[in-house]
Design a protein that fits this description.
The protein has 163 residues and is mainly α. It contains seven helices and no strands.
Length: 163
């Protein structure tokens, strides 16, 4: 019979960076999608359409006729993108320690920059999605969400991991 200390295998003190990037990215994606649903729901847009609009990055307009499969694809795709955003901050912070020393300011700038990069550069120019125009209020909500739900948490996670 194994002794109690031999049978117990504690987890390492800090989980791998990939784990935290995926967990942080998934949480940020779901929170950001909840913000989108809260904004678009009263305007008559079903939550499924929000997820399908992300699936449209890969599938184009066909995503809106794909049913539950494209809803799931949109959720997984967005969680993956934001996991990459979380991990990228950590990599940038390795090269520039000021990003760790000033997580709120640097995270806010990073979040706003990532919103611009994803939704003003990547999606309209490099995805299969049909370009859409939105009111400035929607963009303001999105930038605020990216600052508070993505950029600052990415900076705080990177800071915790660096310790």
């Amino acid at each position: 019979m194994a002794s109690r200390s031999e049978a117990f295998h504690p987890l390492p003190p800090v989980p791998p960076a990939v784990f935290w990037s995926v967990m942080g990215g998934t949480a940020a994606a779901m929170l950001d999608l909840a913000v989108a649903a809260a904004y678009w729901g009263p305007r008559g847009v079903a939550p499924d359409r929000i997820f399908q609009s992300i699936a449209a990055w890969l599938l184009g307009p066909a995503a809106f006729t794909g049913g539950e499969g494209t809803v799931a694809l949109g959720a997984v795709l967005y969680a993956g993108v934001l996991s990459g955003v979380m991990g990228a901050y950590r990599l940038l912070a390795r090269r520039s320690p000021v990003l760790l020393r000033r997580p709120f300011g640097a995270g806010a700038v990073y979040g706003a920059s990532m919103y611009g990069l994803i939704f003003l550069v990547f999606v309209p120019h490099f995805s299969a999605a049909t370009p859409a125009t939105h009111a400035w209020q929607w963009h303001a909500v999105c930038v605020a969400a990216y600052v508070l739900l993505i950029g600052i948490p990415a900076a705080l996670l990177a800071r915790i991991q660096a310790r």
